[in-house]
Amino acid sequence: MSLQAEEETFRFQAEAAQILDLMANSLYSNKEIFLRELVSNSSDAIDRLRIERFSRPELAGDEDEGEPRIRVSFDKDAGTITVADDGIGMSRAEVIENIGTIAKSGTSEFLRSLTGDQRRDTALIGQFGVGFYAAFIVAERVVLTTRRAGLPADEAVRWSSDGKGEYSLENVERAERGTTIVLHLRDGEDELLNEHRLRSIIKRYSDHIARPITVGDDDSAVNQASALWTRPKSELKDGDYHEYYRQLTGDFTDPLGHLHAKVEGRYDYTLLLFVPSRAPYDLWTPEPGQGVRLHVQRVFILEDSGRLLPRYLRFVRGIIDSADLPLNVSREILQGSQAIDHIRASAVKKLLRLLKDMADGEPEKYAEFWTQFGAVLKEGVFDDPAHREDIAGLLRFTSTRSGGEARVSLADYVSGMRDGQDKIYYLLAPGLSDAAASPHLEAFRAKDIEVLLLDDAVDNFVVTGLAQYEGKQLQSVAQGPPDFGAMADEAEKEAAEQADSAYAALLGKLKAHLEGKAWDVRVTSRLTTSPACIVANEAETDFTVARRLRGSGLPAQPILEINPGHPLVERLNRGQDDPRLADWAHVLYDQAVLTSGARIDEPGAFVSRLNDLLVSLTDGSSG
Ligand SMILES: Nc1ncnc2c1ncn2[C@@H]1O[C@H](COP(=O)(O)OP(=O)(O)OP(=O)(O)O)[C@@H](O)[C@H]1O
Questions:
Q1: Binding site for ATP: residue ranges?
Q2: How far apart are CA 133 and CA 125, in angstroms?
């Protein structure tokens, strides 16, 4: 007997133990999923064998075989359910790695994501690839026997565990390749030992599995045994798609929409793509795990989140099945594949069309979509210039008229423009409440001009990427002089010119006092109620962006704008010889900085200046 043939005992990793405990104790209300998970692993194992045979032809035909299948059986007397496949199997090292450790990256994320809500938590199992352990929901002991394709009969392995912290491994003989999993059911699970019951679970959860699944001695398949996307659309109902989506993603909420298209022509391919109704936990990680699964002639090849669809559609789930790629296609080959380029372009077009139809036909649903994925879709404006127009049409914004909701499209905005208005105005701000309170909006409010309020980190790239929509230029309200174009009437222009000359002397003095702080001081028609505000030089990046980039809060060349109609400013103009004018200048500047949401340089100096001024005012001793 070789050393390896002896039974050895191993401890599960701590996280594995936690997951096992969870399976056994918390996910019971959805216990049938154990079968879904095991069957899905078997189906993957059969697919992997088929793929491997392309690169290792010696594996082909090593046994006389019929169509690969998944067999589910049960033994009432022994209290066991068995799931067996003739897939690729596992070597000893693979068993230790795949079944023993769960050292997978998603595991701790999985544990962190648990909510305590059983339904949701069950949904997570599929997403995080801890499916095998679902066996312990119903089993008190699981025995897995497996032989890797290509290895001799005496190198099969038996893994066994009660899921309580340890598992054992021993070498065994096994005549045929593949994997057999025997579940010794817990007390009270006898109702599962029933042909009818097992069939209905399979029908319900595994109908779409492309391999035949048999139960008991009956050799006919319980499931449809054809990949769902290969079936004609006319045969499929929403419910079928939803169930398939659930299997694919582990997400128990119905998707917001799906598209199913079989395309024949220069390239033959099928798309079955879903728009989920909520964002996955890793939507914002640099390399989101799930994406679109690539199949070649129905065989699952790889999961891809970067090549098959652009990043701004990374929330889409589903499958692409191509007839034009080799089965041993790799990620590298995908890079240069014309077929993939073609399929990707067509998928993008169809997805954008699906979203447009949803936006037009089911605005409520689209609003849900936007809440979940709008910030991702926006990236398309600068990432995919070829579809910029289409994506622009799908954008939704909060505005000064939208009551806090992101529901204004650019088309809505344009149709609500005032006579003579030729620009689309926006304000970038770190948050919506900052935006809504911004002094930069005052004149726009007074003139009833709508302003888009942008608070997403990507929004700056969106406005610079777009630059214009239907010939209307996008214009920041916090940058450069306010520009009302044709909407400024003659009287206003005249008043502005008069103010400029009436305030010239004061401006010079303020500028001198604020040297090193304000790059310029100007009179503005932008304000109606605030005395002053800070704007960015027109040549600079918008200052909210500068703030994000530098973290300091102000543009490099901050301009102080003062409101000639404000009593405080009028009074300074009248009393320019006030010995406290320097203090006034600084207080005016610092409060404008504060209302912009930025930090002031010397809060202590600001407070003492302000207090001095208050004291002098209450003394009645100030000019
Ligand atoms: N029947 C089987 N035949 C061959 N390998 C298997 C079988 N069942 C499981 N495995 C191996 O064990 C690994 C772990 O399985 P598990 O179900 O826990 O996660 P997963 O299959 O990777 O993820 P998911 O559940 O999301 O499909 C699999 O990736 C596979 O390598």
A1: 37, 41, 85, 90, 98, 104-106, 127-132, 179, 331
A2: 9
Ligand 1, atom 13: closest residue by C-alpha: 98
Give the C-alpha separation, 221 to 208, whole Å.
12
Binding residues: 37, 41, 85, 90, 98, 104-106, 127-132, 179, 331
d(CA 419, CA 402): 20
- Rounded to an integer, what distance in angstroms lies between the CA atom of residue 600 and that of residue 602? 6
Q: Which atom of ligand 1 is nearest to the CA of 181?
A: 1
Contact by Cβ (8 Å): 231, 244 = no
> Which DSSP string corresponds to 441-466?
GHHHHHTT--EEEE-STTHHHHHHHH
- In the chain the first and final C-alpha atoms are separated, in Å, by 105
Whole-angstrom Cα distance, residue 444 to residue 242?
A: 47
Q: Are the CB atoms for 322 and 262 separated by under 8 Å?
A: no
Pocket of ligand 1 (CB under 6 A): 37, 40-42, 45, 85, 87-90, 98-99, 126, 129-132, 179
User: Tens digits of per-residue pLDDT, 453-496?
Assistant: 998 878 988 998 999 999 999 998 888 777 777 777 777 778 77
Tokens representing 286?
């640099």
User: What would the pLDDT profile of 217-272 be if each residue is shown by its tens digit?
Assistant: 999 999 987 888 998 999 999 999 998 898 788 788 999 999 999 999 899 999 99
- Which domains does the chain carry? 8-215 (3.30.565.10), 228-367 (3.30.230.80), 489-619 (1.20.120.790)
* ipTM, interface predicted TM-score of the complex: 0.96
Position 374, amino acid: G
In angstroms, rounded to a whole number, what is the distance separating the alpha carbons of residues 300 and 263?
A: 19
Q: In the chain, count of helices (H) and strands (E)?
A: 22, 21
Distance 37 CA to ligand 1 centre (A): 9
The CA distance from 452 to 438, in Å, is 12
List alpha helices for 362-396, DSSP H: 363-377, 379-383, 388-394
Sequential DSSP letters for 6-51: S-EEEEPPHHHHHHHHHHHHH-GGGTTHHHHHHHHHHHHHHHHHHH
Q: Indicate which atom in ligand 1 lies nearest the CA of residue 41.
A: 8
Within a 13 Å sphere around the CA of 408, how many CA atoms are in the beta-carbon half? 24
The answer to whether 155 and 139 are in contact (CB under 8 A) is: no
